[in-house]
Write a structure and sequence with these properties.
The complex is a heterotrimer of chains A (560), B (360) and C (294).
Chain A (H helix, E strand, L loop, with lengths): L2 E8 L3 H12 L4 E5 L15 E2 L10 H11 L6 H21 L13 E2 L9 E2 L5 H16 L3 E3 L1 E9 L2 E9 L5 E11 L20 H8 L4 E2 L4 E8 L4 E2 L3 H4 L3 E3 L20 H13 L8 E4 L5 H7 L1 H10 L9 E10 L2 E3 L11 E3 L4 E2 L11 H23 L7 H16 L7 H14 L6 H18 L13 H25 L18 H4 L1 E8 L2 E8 L13
Parallel strand pairs in A: 1-2, 1-9, 2-6, 9-17, 16-18
Antiparallel strand pairs in A: 3-5, 4-5, 7-8, 8-9, 10-16, 10-19, 11-12, 11-15, 13-14, 14-15, 19-20
Chain B lengths: L1 E8 L4 E8 L8 H12 L18 E4 L2 E4 L6 H6 L4 E3 L6 E3 L2 E2 L2 H9 L20 H4 L13 H5 L1 H5 L5 H12 L7 H8 L13 H5 L6 H14 L6 H15 L5 H9 L1 H5 L2 H9 L15 H14 L5 H4 L2 H13 L25
Parallel strand pairs in B: 1-5
Antiparallel strand pairs in B: 1-2, 3-4, 3-5, 6-7
Helix pairs in contact in B: 3-7, 7-8, 7-10, 8-10, 11-12
Chain C lengths: L1 E6 L1 H5 L3 H10 L5 E5 L10 H5 L1 H17 L4 E4 L2 H15 L2 H13 L10 E4 H5 L2 H10 L8 E4 L22 H8 L3 E2 L18 H17 L4 E4 L2 H9 L1 H8 L7 E3 H8 L4 H4 L9 H6 L3
Parallel strand pairs in C: 1-2, 1-3, 3-4, 5-6, 5-7, 7-8
């Protein structure tokens, strides 16, 4: 073990940086490890906003926020976790503003809030359409102010587990090469999602589920892994995100006949229904031949140039660059794309996992505040509120416990495993496996799911995992070997795909993002108002269930 | 399509220009093409990437010598023209491998501007600071920065003086100087006005040209200059140089060229330049200051100065006030046509009112 | 004959009078009738934009207003810095009616004419490197440059920011090359032709400026140039007058003659030496004039 800290945060997006700041302020020696520079993190790509019942645009309160979130989750969210989020959200947003976040403003100079999908009030605080960008930079500023050490461009690969506790991380130094073990009394996973399991995804190349897979390999359970959200407005072919803020500002969704087709699916909320509902509506229109080249149209024209330039400037830039369409004059062709993993590492409301010393916050975690379907604007809020909570708990725990041990054998095993991979010269390079995985997941585990397709996907993932056993890394060098790290990422993704398929097959109902219209079209609260839970035992996935925590809200029929 | 890439092996210290021929779809960006090269041709190729949607700032590099974000650069037109672009690492930063540069000097300069809000003693209480949108707009452009380094790559001043803070760090500085909530304005302006700061900018406008996000770093530096002047932080030679232009304009109307050197450098330093000045004098490059060359109706320029000082947009606001109009110019520039009918005959039809569709 | 309002700017009135005399002499030969503006001031050279930006806007609005008052639709500049400053102000005023109204109120209150937005700011280079001006130029340059190797130096503020200038590709400009070719010269290509000459900081940060300045001169020399040409009197001043400082600092004596654009064409068009005024250059132009036997 070369270095040691009280708290090590893996990942430096919004959740990771917020956790590190909280741990630092609590007096802990905290460091961050990130495979990309903190401001490159994918939190920065969040566009539309962050939900908190500030009441700046209407009468609002945390309870309304909580109810919208519970209903949005299709009742799979844990209500204690949701209540905490919604209660703490306003102060946490004010905190960001005090740190300097450049929020858009109301005419009276307060933080501006816009309507968002499935929200009863205009609750989404925003900075034009670059809210995530603004937040990631304000958090990085606070990290610099505190001079929190950051292992930049270190690829975290393994958790160190000894004596029944997580005691550190083993990481590959991208710039210089070589493995380094970093001891820690507590480790916080804040590595984000795994959208790279799909071809059409809003997620960055970095979103390869590293933290989920590391936790799984350390024996920790993952929860609700079948719950992958498809965002209704992404650009063909690669899935670049077009913000829900467009619809918050009043944009229409049209089919090829210029109909606002949502009148048939969500007649009250229309374009501001929840994401799962809209993605299914779009997919139905497209499947039934009312799409346009596999897309529906997002129409902003009636908003006018001034409003688009002021509030949706980034969106215009994206659609001009990637779709060749200027939304001032033409509707943007959009389709559902993989966006957000509601599932993740199973934690309690302080981010603790079943492994002492290991915590998780943000998209990597499943507390669960999002259940079967996340509301737009709740992800950024979760990163901040739960990042803070987890940072606090992990630092308190670390400051109360003293010893850290990274056994030499653990380091030696990692070195040996890496050497075996690098020494292999005959075999397949990873990219074909990666592409096949993402293409088949999109077809077989997408917006709508069929039993036989999920079974088929299980077999495909199995065979891809077998091929992965003999994968070859072409770059044998030490310096910036992204060929190596991309191969390791693929290993993570393959295991997560298997967890998703097993969980998906087990959930024989339709709830939130898990839609099975052909065999189980309805929600079945009697059997499935509970979380799936998967662990990795002897090279295979084991499935279990966990009850949903209910406080005030009983399941009701969910319409928009 | 074909492209050439400057490869660099840091261990051996070798550089080589290699050509690749790849099949790429029409929609491919430079980043997509590099991915194809790495997957199918050479797994050892190194470059940074992440979001592929112009917000994370990872993939700054040069194409044909000009810094670009690889994910923002569509390749179809280049491929069709038959041109073979040359891809290389960004400038003004040491190369680590292939297209990956060492950005530590870059981040060091960002740190040097103390890039965090200094809230001072004004306590906003339990809720947010009250700040108007108009006031926030002062730092709108600066807060768009994604720290990709494209501006720094091409900065002519930094090439000549590696210690120059540079466009990204100074734009970040303006993001705080212009923030109504920050209370360290004077300290910041004093520090940014030192050597290697605001007044080292040579106004080559490469940063403005290359920035993929419309930050306009040169304008940010000008805003810092304007704020420094407003705060009376004007002892640097660069500041005195700028001030002399103002004095000239309101006295004679034209630049009082001969007096510029002593007014900028001070009498003592400018005396050392006598030999040089005599050389210029011989060729009429030192026009005699007396009688002064006075513009007709210069009283108008003097009166305008008084009006502006009384009621004009002071400091950086004098630049920000033009941004709305200039952004509209950019909008026209990008879309190629000022006025198009979004509902014209060739457009996608107007939405039908809900419930009137044939799909009911 | 196209009538344009002619804005000399500071240097052509003062230390670079040769730019003014050669431009005035050349104009009728390339189809331009110049109406010289008298009641105007300095554009601020980027310095007033930085020191007192609102004053900068007013001064430039006033220049535009006087140009408009001549009845011409074009304001011709002979300096990169004037071009950028005036175009920037023009765009800001034309794109924002409220801003234009405030500035006009102030102009009128001091006795200047108001500006209605009817003037386009064009550099002399732009007017003669395409279209009718270019055709006339080809005819006027009858004496030619006899294959002289000329290094075109654009400088910065005639190319960048291209969204304000936009005349040509800021990375691959060719207007100067076209003119050199039309005059019978051979254009030399070198990377620093679009980079900075260091002028804006040559007094405040001389070392930094000289490290910039040396690049184009050295590259032009290495590429075998007989002379350099520039459309900007500020670039001209640093390239010409500060060469001696480069010699002092680096020991390299380039002896590179530097011509104003109007002088280069003027030579090919047979202008009189009283109009070209080469004696006003610090680096001798004799090697060029001798080659051309003038």
């Amino acid at each position: 073990m070369e270095v040691m800290h009280d708290v090590v945060v893996v990942g430096a997006g919004c959740a990771g940086m917020r956790a590190a700041i909280e741990a630092f302020d609590a007096g802990a020696d905290v460091a961050m490890i990130s495979k990309i520079h903190p401001v490159r993190s994918h939190s920065g790509a969040a566009e539309g906003g962050i939900n908190a019942a500030l009441g700046n645009a209407s009468e609002d309160d945390p309870e309304k926020h909580a109810f919208d979130t519970v209903k949005g989750s299709d009742y799979l969210g844990d209500q204690d976790a949701i209540e905490i989020l919604c209660q703490e959200a306003p102060d946490d947003v004010y905190q960001l503003e005090h740190w300097g976040a450049v929020f858009s403003r109301t005419p009276d100079g307060r933080i501006a809030q816009r309507p968002f999908g499935a929200a009863g009030e205009p609750r989404t605080a925003y900075a034009a359409d670059i809210t995530g960008h603004v937040l990631i930079h304000v958090l990085y500023e606070q990290v610099l102010k505190r001079d929190i050490p950051t292992y930049e461009e270190y690829f975290a690969w393994k958790l160190v587990v000894d004596d029944g506790r997580c005691q550190g991380v083993i990481a590959w130094d991208l710039l210089r090469g070589g493995l380094q073990s970093i001891g820690a009394k507590t480790v916080i996973l804040a590595t984000g999602g795994a959208g790279r399991l799909y071809t059409g995804t809003t997620n960055a190349y970095a979103c390869t589920g590293d933290g989920m897979a590391m936790a799984l390999r350390a024996g920790v359970a993952l929860k609700d892994m079948e719950m992958m959200q498809f965002h209704p407005t992404t650009l063909a072919p690669t899935g670049v995100l077009i913000t829900e803020g467009c619809r918050g500002e009043g944009a229409y969704l049209l089919n090829a006949k210029a109909e606002r087709f949502l009148v048939r699916y969500a007649p009250n909320a229309m374009e501001l229904a929840s994401r799962d509902v809209i993605s299914r509506a779009e997919q139905t229109e497209i499947d039934e031949g009312r799409g346009l080249n596999g897309n529906v149209m997002l129409d902003l024209r009636h908003l006018g140039a001034e409003r688009i330039l002021e509030r949706l400037h980034g969106t215009r830039e994206l659609s001009m660059t990637f779709a060749g369409v200027d939304p001032i004059y033409e509707p943007i062709p959009v389709r559902p794309g993989a966006h957000y993993h509601m599932g993740g590492v199973d934690t309690d409301v302080w981010g603790q996992t079943s492994l002492p010393g290991l915590y998780a916050a943000g998209e990597v975690a499943c507390v669960s505040v999002h259940g079967a379907n996340r509301l737009g604007g709740n992800a950024l809020m979760e990163t901040i509120t739960y990042g803070k909570r987890v940072g606090r708990h992990a630092s308190e725990w670390a400051l109360a416990n003293t010893t850290v041990e990274v056994p030499a054998a653990v380091e030696a095993d990692a070195e040996r495993e890496l050497k075996a991979l690098l020494d292999r010269t005959a075999g397949e390079r990873p990219w074909q496996i990666r592409d096949e995985l993402a293409e088949t997941m999109h077809v077989n585990f997408g917006v709508f799911r069929r039993e036989e397709q999920m079974l088929e996907q299980g077999a495909i993932v199995q065979s891809l995992r077998e091929r992965y056993e003999s994968v070859v890394v072409e770059d044998k060098g030490e310096v910036f070997n992204s060929d190596l790290t991309q191969a390791l990422e693929l290993g993570f993704l393959l295991e997560l795909a298997e967890c998703m398929v097993v969980s998906g097959i087990a959930r024989k109902e339709s709830r939130g993002a898990h839609a099975r219209p052909y065999d189980y079209p309805n929600r079945d609260d009697e059997k499935y108002l509970r979380h799936t839970l998967v662990t990795w035992k002897d090279g295979a996935v084991q499935l279990d269930w966990k009850p949903v925590t209910m406080t005030k809200w009983q399941p009701q029929e969910r319409t928009y | 399509m074909a492209l050439k890439i400057w490869r660099y092996d840091a261990v051996k210290g070798e550089r080589a220009l290699e050509e690749y021929e790849v099949d790429a779809p029409d929609w491919a960006t430079l980043l997509d093409v590099l991915d194809i090269v790495k997957d199918r041709h050479d797994g050892t190729l190194a470059y940074r990437k992440s979001c592929r949607m112009m917000i994370c700032g990872s993939c700054g590099m040069r194409m044909d010598g000009a810094a670009v974000l690889a994910c923002k650069t569509r390749m179809v037109d280049i491929a069709e023209s038959g041109h073979v672009p040359v891809i290389s690492a960004m400038g003004n930063m040491p190369i680590v491998k292939d297209l990956v540069v060492d950005m530590n000097p870059f981040w060091g300069k960002i740190r040097a501007v103390q890039p965090w809000l200094e809230p001072g003693y004004s306590d906003p209480g339990e809720k947010e600071h009250i700040v108007s949108q108009e006031r926030m707009d002062t730092i709108h452009k600066e807060s768009l920065c994604i720290m990709c380094g494209c501006c720094v790559s091409e900065c002519n001043s930094m090439e000549a003086d590696p210690d120059f803070l540079g466009p990204a760090a100074l734009a970040k500085g303006m993001r705080f100087v212009g923030d109504a909530r920050d209370r360290a304005t004077v300290e910041r302006l004093q520090s940014y006005s030192e050597e290697h700061g605001i007044w080292d900018c040579t106004r080559c406008y490469f940063c403005q040209e290359r920035c993929p996000k419309g930050v306009d770093p040169r304008d940010a530096i000008a805003k810092l200059g304007a704020e420094a002047m407003r705060e009376g932080i004007d002892s640097d030679m660069g500041a005195r140089h700028a001030k002399w232009f103002v004095t000239s304009a309101k006295t004679t109307g034209w630049l009082r060229e001969t007096e510029l050197v002593p007014k900028t450098q001070g009498i003592a330093k400018s005396m050392k330049e006598v030999t040089f000045a005599m050389g210029l004098l011989k060729h009429g490059k030192v026009p005699p200051p007396f009688p002064p060359h006075v513009a007709k109706h210069v009283d108008e320029a003097r009166a305008l100065y008084d009006i502006v000082k009384q009621e004009g947009a002071q400091g950086a606001a004098g630049i920000v006030q033009s941004e709305h109009a200039l952004a509209r110019l950019e909008f026209v520039h990008e879309s190629g046509a000022e006025e198009r009918d979004p509902y014209g005959p060739d457009s996608f039809p107007e939405p039908l009112p809900p419930g009137e569709g044939a799909g009911q | 004959m196209k009538t344009v309002a002619y804005y000399k700017g500071c240097l052509a009135s003062l230390s670079a009078k040769e730019l003014d005399t050669s431009t005035q002499a050349l104009a009728p030969k390339v189809g331009l009738e110049l109406v010289e503006l008298e009641a105007v001031t300095c554009c601020g050279a980027g310095d007033i934009h930085e020191a007192e930006p609102d004053y900068y806007l007013h001064l430039n609005a006033r220049i535009l207003a006087y140009a408009e008052a001549t009845g011409a639709d074009t304001l011709m500049t002979v300096c990169n810095v004037c071009t950028l400053n005036l175009r920037q102000a023009n765009h800001a005023l034309r794109g924002d009616a409220a801003l234009l109204a405030r500035v006009n109120d102030n102009l009128v209150s001091v006795g200047a004419p108001p500006y209605s937005g009817g003037v386009e700011v064009m550099h002399f280079l732009w007017l003669i490197s395409v279209g009718e001006g270019y055709e006339l130029l080809k005819g006027a340059a009858h004496k030619g440059l006899k294959g002289l190797k000329i290094a075109p130096f654009y400088g910065c503020q005639i190319l960048r920011p291209s969204k304000l200038l936009g005349f040509e590709d800021p990375d691959k400009p060719e207007s100067l090359e076209r003119i050199i070719a039309a005059c019978g010269g051979e254009a030399i290509d070198y990377p620093a032709k679009i980079k900075c000459c260091g002028f804006p900081i040559i007094q405040a940060r001389e070392d930094v400026a000289l490290a910039e300045l040396i690049q184009p001169i050295e590259q032009a020399k290495e590429a075998g140039a007989d002379a350099m040409v520039t459309p900007c009197p500020l670039c001209h001043l640093s390239l010409d007058a500060w060469q001696s400082k480069l010699r002092k600092q680096t020991g390299k004596d380039f002896q590179m003659p530097v011509l104003h654009l109007s002088q280069l064409i003027g030579v090919a068009a047979g202008l009189d030496s009283s109009e070209l005024k080469f004696k006003r250059h610090v680096v001798s132009v004799e090697p060029v004039t001798e080659r051309l036997a003038i």
